[in-house]
Amino acid sequence: MLQNESVTEFILLGLTEDPEKQKMVFVIFLIFYFGTMVGNLLIIVTIKSSRTLGSPMYFFLFYLSLVDTCFSTSMAPRLIIDALSAKKIISYSECLTQVFALQFFGSMEIFVLVLMAIDRYAAICKPLHYPTIMSQKACIILIVLSWIGSFIHSMAQIILALRLPFCGSNLIDHYCCDMQPLLKLACMDIHVMNLLVVFNCGFICTSSFIILIISYIVILHSLRNHSAEGRKKALSTCTSYVIVVVLFFGPCIFIYSHPATTFPMDKIVTVFYTIGTPFLNPLIYTLRNAEVKNAMRKLWHVGITSKSKR
């Protein structure tokens, strides 16, 4: 592997260079990040504390909230701090760390969403075999494989990034470090590198999205044989999942399936799936899920009762 010798730091241009707009960026994304932390941590604590939320569906929801918390934390704090900084400098090692975090938690989110679709398929289409298919042991194995797969994917991206030579401008026209902005600055023919990035990231996003859409079509088709009440409950759950899938995969496919050229909308699209989706996920799952809302009420009631007894 070739480590870059000529560049020790990069300068991020951020979402905007307008001082007034930077103040707006600071306020807006501070609110978004705070909401993301509160919402996802509340889901994590609720699932861990509740005896009624022990099914595989909530097991995977727990990990989705955990990944969303880490994903947002790897991006949002830097964006918030840089909004008030005159010069947004990021060191070479910090930049590569951010690339790793973005790829690791992004791919982990994809894998968890796929596992959630598998769980819903087994629950709705194979109800008699569901306890066997989605046993506790099977769920743990699937999550461990997801962590391993995400790590391998992220290391592949880092190996590619380490081989990029930088000898000209160190200005990154983005608010974070990612492969496409770095490829644009590289002093080499990036055609092959870009194909590898598109094949790696773009293929994972696109193929997973197609698999998810097909699985939900099959699930919705199978609901015709269920009772009206069962159909309503399954539709509510699946609708939440489909909303999350579209919100996450749409921007993700757009970013990682085009050549290493920067479009004006790239930064906004990246914001949507790295910061916006982790913020929206808790709202989507809690507002449309009666079991989660009831468990949160019980947890709140227990907390208030224990405080009043002290």
Oligomer class: single chain
The 3D shape can be described as: globular
Structural class: mainly alpha
CATH fold group: Rhopdopsin 7-helix transmembrane proteins
Report the CATH superfamily: Rhodopsin 7-helix transmembrane proteins
The strand line-up of the biggest sheet is 2-1-3
Estimate nothing, just give the exact number of structural domains.
Answer: 1
Q: What is the end-to-end distance?
A: 60 Å
Mean pLDDT: 85
Q: Kindly provide the name of the CATH class.
A: Mainly Alpha
The radius of gyration computed from the alpha-carbon positions, rounded to a whole number of angstroms, is 21 Å
Number of strands: 3
What is the element layout, followed by pairings?
Elements: E1 9-12, H1 19-49, H2 56-82, E2 89-91, H3 92-125, H4 130-133, H5 136-162, E3 171-172, H6 179-185, H7 191-222, H8 228-256, H9 266-287, H10 290-309
Parallel strand pairs: 1-3
Antiparallel strand pairs: 1-2
What would you note in describing this structure?
This protein has 310 residues and is mostly helical. It has one domain: Rhopdopsin 7-helix transmembrane proteins. It is built from 10 helices and 3 strands; from the N terminus they run βααβαααβααααα. It starts with 8 loop residues before the first strand and ends with a helix.
Task: Please describe the structure with a list of short key phrases separated by commas or semicolons.
10 helices; Rhopdopsin 7-helix transmembrane proteins; 3 strands; mainly alpha; 3-stranded mixed beta sheet; 310 residues; 3% strand
